[in-house]
Amino acid sequence: MTDLSQALALLARREQELAALHAGHEDWVRAFSHDLRAPLRHITSYAPLLRETLHGAGLQGVDAQEAEQFLGVMEQAARRLGSMLDGTLLMARVLRQRQPLHSVDLAQMAAEVRDALLAADQGQEVQWRLPVAPLLLQADPDLLRQMLQALLGNALKFSRGSSPARIELQAQALPDGGVRWQVRDNGVGFDGARAAQAFGLFQRLHREGEFDGVGVGLALAQAVARRHGAALALSGTPGQGCTVTVDWPAAPAG
Q: Do residues 128 and 112 make contact, with C-beta atoms less than 8 angstroms apart?
């Protein structure tokens, strides 16, 4: 009984420590949500006022052009910082979300995500190839949807210069009962030697001016995969597209 009492006491202490960690995490998220956005709002609000002041002062010629250039850089940096804060908050939500796993049809969800992406970007010719038959995974539906939005959204973005763009999601059963599914595109690709760094938050494989975004999508997909005990890998070749491979377990990890 002594050993059992000690074990129960240790478990209670660990639960208290975990609760304290969760509380600290919530405080951190609130700081990002409110405290850090206040100075950013000042920058974005006062930049147009400063532009009006400069115009009202009669600034002309090279001085006016330089002032406009400086303001443009400042506003662009503020927008980027706002996107980075949004991405950090999204990652925080993924890491703290604790929802029961359900049987989710990957094929149906991928089709829904595709339709939403096309509705937001109707000017691009895209050839989609998605599974038709049901493809069931044990997953948190919200997290799986965010993962698909990140992967299919990236495929669409980086294949924008291809005519037509081709995006494919295919799947096959693994010997242990899991599922390997892949998202492929025929876009700009990347140097495969840099694949490992792509999963870091705010890491980019292309120059900032070439594509929008701040480097959150693959980090988010990796976080979702790990939450489900899945493994994620990236491969690509410059000018020949990219493939994201996900090995999804047959049952929840642990």
A: no
Question: Does 99 score more than 80 pLDDT?
Answer: no
Domain match, 59 and 150 both: no
Which residue segment(s) compose the domain that 144 sits in?
A: 102-248
pLDDT at site 252: 53
**Do β-strands 165-173 and 126-129 pair in parallel, antiparallel, or remain unpaired?**
parallel
Q: Is residue 254 included in any domain, yes or no?
A: no
* 234-238 long-range Cβ contacts below 8 angstroms, 24+ apart: 234/195, 234/198, 234/199, 235/192, 235/195, 236/189, 236/190, 236/191, 236/192, 236/195, 237/189, 237/190, 237/192, 238/188, 238/189, 238/190, 238/191
- pLDDT tens readout for residues 119-129: 877 667 889 99
pLDDT of residue 215: 66
The CATH code of the domain that includes 160 is 3.30.565.10
Q: pLDDT at position 79, please?
A: 80
Query: Quick one: 136 and 181 in the same domain?
Result: yes
pTM: 0.70
Task: List the beta bridge partners of residue 138.
Answer: 103
144 domain residue, yes or no: yes
Same domain assignment for residues 119 and 216: yes
Cβ atoms of residues 130 and 113 within 8 Å: no
